[in-house]
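ok here's G-protein coupled receptors family 1 profile domain-containing protein:
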Amino acid sequence: MLYNWLKTVVGLLLTINYVLPLYTILSDRRLWEEPVAVLAGNMSFVCLFMGVNLSLIGAYDLLQLDTVALCRTLQYTGIGFGVASKMAQLCMAVDQFVAISRPLQHLSLMVRARCWLVAATWATWAVQFVLSSLTGALDLVTVADSVHGRGNGSVVYPDCRWETHYSVVFAMIVEMELVSFSLATIALFSYTFWVGYRTSRQLSRRGPEPQSEERQQQGRHFLHSYRVFKRVALVFSLTVTLDVVSPILRLASYWHTAPQLSGILHLLRLLGFTFEGSFNVNGVNKKMRLSEKCQ
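and the structure:
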């Protein structure tokens, strides 16, 4: 019962937390032209829906409902938002990379790319929902069935758990997607940090010699973008680690089940999204102040 209350509360916190960045972006029409604001809003939408979904699953368990179709729908949409959030995070990493490596061309490049990145996020959600629904309709062996088949007949999932409704095939695909997106995000952030560090060292070595207006503007854009990037990368690095550890533990659960441990790690990761939401707002506001100063 305590775990179900915890699920509901975390879902509500996640939902409330992402209302702020969405309000910040939607209430200021200037931000609609900023690619980073669009991508931050896109990620906020995904995470807000994920919070609503988690709250509904918690409420389902607290009310002790017994509607298989509703539980499956909540689980299928929920995993879609979960994987889509990783794609949205990767899109943010792409934006940060372009901002650091191409500071003057960042706006023009990302204006063209933002629609494709947003579309990729929601296409990821749609693929997960269709694939989970298809594998569920085919009545393939579920994760819970696999555990029972290995002689652990005492393992029971009385609540609306993913183990009951995800087929082993689909669960394996999802875990590989989560790890792949997480590792790609880590790799891109790491490379961006190296590019930024190398560029900042080069700028510091130039000294106060006269520079063209374009070089000065490029330097200002880079230095500010690099400061924002380091803050964002710090928060993402603290949470993305769980995105690698949690799937590994869930894969291990096929041989030795630990539903409570997996659930707690999942809730910790969702709590990490609250910090990411705050940094999304701060990052967008800092980007806007930079644009106003450089114009």
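+1. The CA atoms of residues 129 and 153 lie 29 Å apart.
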